[in-house]
Design a protein that fits this description.
It is a single chain. With 256 residues, this protein is of the alpha+beta class. Helix content is 40%, strand content 17%. It has seven helices and ten strands.
Length: 256
């Protein structure tokens, strides 16, 4: 199964760039000989009854026997992009699948949550019986880059660390070779930290996060929940409070 995510930068560039994008996608599909295809992303255009304003995209969908999944989203706001400052909305984010996958899409959601600060709403689709779709030829793309970790000194057993470093230093006598002595000291410190200091990924903590941000985030989530429960009004106090809470949360994050 071949999955792709695209982003069309600007509507004025759709006609110029989309033909090249479709050609590249088609070449990947043909090269990998995939019978299952999922394409998702910001297309920067809307589909009306499965047809867009771009003829190149329409031809690509028809020639490759693809289906637009907009009809699978039965619930939700009815748009995927909203600029609240000018009260404008549109459905420009889409999932497109091969026809043999379209009927397997048994659930789809436009996710509305107050902690999302983007103008775009996340889209989610569920494909029934998807466990056997990849087969033996499915490539598992994993991040094989170096994993950078951080020592959690606030959770460390300091007394044990001091005792271990003392033992490791006693086992390694220093001499007059500065480089050799330096390596012995660093090795002893590292070995002691392995036993006494927990590690975590560098991305585990948001160093700028504090109680004020947590409060603003919860306010934004609650204001968004109330707005949805009230039927997503396009005017009035509830919408104003939702926009105000989101703006305050977004401004606070930007200033950190």
């Amino acid at each position: 199964m071949l999955s792709m995510f695209i982003y069309v930068i600007h509507l004025l560039l759709v006609e110029l760039k989309l033909y090249d994008i479709c050609s590249q996608i088609e070449s990947h599909v043909n090269f990998h000989d995939n019978s299952y295809v999922i394409i998702g992303g910001d297309f920067n255009l809307e589909f009306i009854n499965g047809t867009s304003c771009c003829q190149d995209l329409n031809s690509f969908i028809m020639e490759n026997d693809l289906c637009v999944c907009d009809s699978k989203f039965s619930n939700g706001p009815g748009y995927t992009h909203c600029q609240e400052t000018c009260n404008c909305s549109s459905w420009i984010d889409h999932f497109i699948t091969s026809r043999n996958l379209f009927d397997k899409v048994d659930d789809a959601k436009i996710i509305e949550i107050g902690s999302n600060l983007s103008d775009h709403y996340p889209l989610w689709i569920h494909i029934a019986d998807s466990s056997g779709l990849c087969g033996n030829d499915c490539t598992d793309f994993k991040d094989t880059g170096p994993k950078v970790t951080r020592l959690r000194w606030d959770k460390a057993d300091i007394s044990s660390y001091c005792e271990l470093t003392r033992i490791f230093f006693n086992d390694n006598r220093l001499d007059t070779d500065v480089d050799s002595d330096y390596d012995k000291i660093i090795t002893a410190l590292h070995n002691a930290s392995r036993f006494c200091v927990p590690k975590c990924k560098t991305s585990f903590f948001k160093h700028y996060w504090d109680d004020d941000l947590s409060d603003l985030k919860m306010r934004s989530i609650e204001a968004n929940r109330l707005w949805v429960e009230c039927g997503r009004p396009r005017h009035g106090y509830v919408l104003q409070e939702k926009c105000r809470a989101k703006a305050m949360y977004k401004r606070a994050l930007r200033n950190k």
